[in-house]
Design goal:
single chain, mainly alpha, 15 helices, elongated
């Protein structure tokens, strides 16, 4: 058996570890609260666009996590390594950082809590507890001293940590840093007026070749009625950018809505019927992606009605009436919690009036 005298401590005098713990905890909590007040409540002045980028990326959360890891490091005792358990922890941290480059999940408290726990475990020291003054150690003759870990095990643990650190560095250089710069450029573009903002949108798109957001926002700004009157050649340039955004993310339904609006705009400017077909194809694609959405059917019905009036097409007129009817039926059958999104009676009456106003050319000639 092992005999050990009970430890005694003075409750009135704080230990160095307890003092360090208190300081780090106050610093972490204080920094976290001040950043949230500044970014969300404007209580410390109006933040800049770059500050919101920092908030969106969750970098303030890394400060929170760093506070907890420092607490874990300062309050833990024992050996610095414990048999290679840090490798999966570091891989988990790398996965969090990589995911944050596309989803910005570190601003979610639940995600941030798990990240903080992983970081704290990764830096915590493990092993036998640290001896304090007054502790005595007595060993019986049968006790054996545990042998030190073999050199091969230490080398393997060191190699694993180096690989993990290189992976984290690669994630920062190849993913996190470009996304950070792209978000900064995007924030500046949102604060500038067109057409000066166009260059910043394109810069953001070049910095992050996977994100379609800068290109889609550029198209939305271009279609803003407050912008200068568009020209056909300018519409063609913006159309190319939207197609590039679709190549980056073909499952984003808003891209096809913008595509339909741009093709219809170019048709009104140039009169090419091929643009009408392209606009209808874009909105039909949106309906295929979300067939239960009344709004997508309504968008398609409106474009069909305008196209039928411009081209005297009875087929498009009839299809427009069918799409209006489908939109009204889907809205009336919205299920569950989606019922709150139902159109108001005034809105439904407006849509029914638009449906009844679509008369096929053959009917008009008969009258």
């Amino acid at each position: 058996t092992r005999n050990q005298e009970p430890r005694t401590s003075s409750r009135g005098t704080p230990t160095p570890h307890r003092t360090a713990l208190t300081r780090w905890l106050i610093a972490a909590v204080g920094g976290f609260v001040l950043l949230r007040l500044w970014l969300l409540g404007d209580m410390l002045g109006t933040p800049s666009g770059v500050a919101f980028v920092v908030f969106d990326l969750g970098l303030y959360g890394l400060i929170w996590a760093a506070g907890f890891t420092a607490i874990a490091f300062l309050t833990s005792t024992g050996a610095a390594d414990a048999g290679g358990f840090r490798l999966p922890l570091l891989c988990g941290l790398a996965a969090f950082l990589l995911h944050n480059t596309i989803d910005f999940s570190l601003l979610v408290p639940a995600t941030l809590t798990v990240l903080s726990a992983l970081a704290a475990l990764a830096v915590a020291r493990t092993g036998e507890p640290e001896r304090r003054p007054g502790d005595k150690e007595t060993r019986s003759q049968g006790d054996e001293v545990e042998p030190a870990p073999p050199c091969g095990e230490r080398a393997a643990g060191l190699a694993a940590m180096m690989i993990a650190l290189l992976g984290l560095g690669g994630t920062w250089v190849l993913a996190y840093r470009p996304v950070t710069l792209a978000c900064a450029a995007l924030a500046e573009a949102r604060e500038q007026a067109m057409p000066e903002a166009g260059d910043r949108y394109l810069e953001a798109a070049a910095l992050d070749p996977l994100d379609p957001t800068p290109l889609l926002e550029l198209a939305e700004r271009f279609l803003d009625p407050a912008s200068s009157p568009p020209r056909p050649e300018h519409v063609s340039v913006v159309l190319a950018r939207v197609h590039e955004a679709i190549d980056r993310d073909p499952r984003q339904i808003g891209s096809y809505r913008l595509l339909g609006r741009l093709y219809e705009l170019r048709y009104r400017l140039s009169g090419s019927e091929s643009d009408v077909w392209a606009a209808l194809g874009a909105l039909r694609r949106a309906v295929e992606m979300y067939p239960q959405s009344p709004d997508e059917h309504l968008n398609l019905a409106g474009l069909l009605a305008r196209s039928a009036a411009a081209t005297n097409s009875p087929e498009w007129a009839q299809e427009a009436r069918d799409e209006y009817a489908t939109a009204l039926a889907l809205d009336a059958a919205r299920p569950g919690l989606d019922e709150v999104r139902k159109w108001s009676p005034a809105r439904r009456a407006e849509i029914e009036k638009a449906r009844d106003a679509v008369i096929p050319p053959a009917s008009q000639s008969a009258e």
